[in-house]
Design goal:
By secondary structure, this protein is mainly beta. The chain contains 1 helix and 9 strands; from the N terminus they run βββββββββα.
């Protein structure tokens, strides 16, 4: 089909998270069934190493089961040294069975500082 879906990318920081964090592209137009790759950037402005965890959410909620992340920086924690910058790939497929009335999917990531939690487990 020639159907295209708009996928919007939103990045927010949880309270107390100081990193620069965001998508390289705010929106992509994708064909359902095709694998798409994009990326997000993160930078640690602090003078000490930090560990972050990104938590994703998809809206509308009923589109979530049709949005498949095959590679995502959210699958693992991101450790950055002081001043370090990183590009984090995201690879996804929008299922061809996505309901016809869904034209836009918004993928939001919230970035959490998990430095203390990681330190406590080591």
């Amino acid at each position: 089909t020639t159907r295209k879906i708009k996928v919007q990318f939103v990045a927010t920081n949880n309270d107390g998270m100081t990193w620069s964090f965001g998508p390289d592209q705010a929106m992509l137009s994708v064909h359902p069934g095709e694998a798409t790759t994009t990326s997000f950037f993160a930078a640690n402005p602090e003078r000490h190493a930090m560990v972050a965890q990104a938590i994703p959410s998809v809206s509308p909620a009923r589109a979530a089961e049709f949005f498949h992340k095959t590679e995502c920086f959210c699958f693992r924690q991101q450790a950055l040294e002081a001043g370090q910058k990183i590009d984090m790939p995201l690879r996804f497929i929008v299922d061809q069975d996505l309901p016809e009335d869904v034209h836009t999917i918004t993928l939001t990531y919230t970035l959490f500082d998990v430095t203390q939690r990681v330190a406590a487990n080591n």
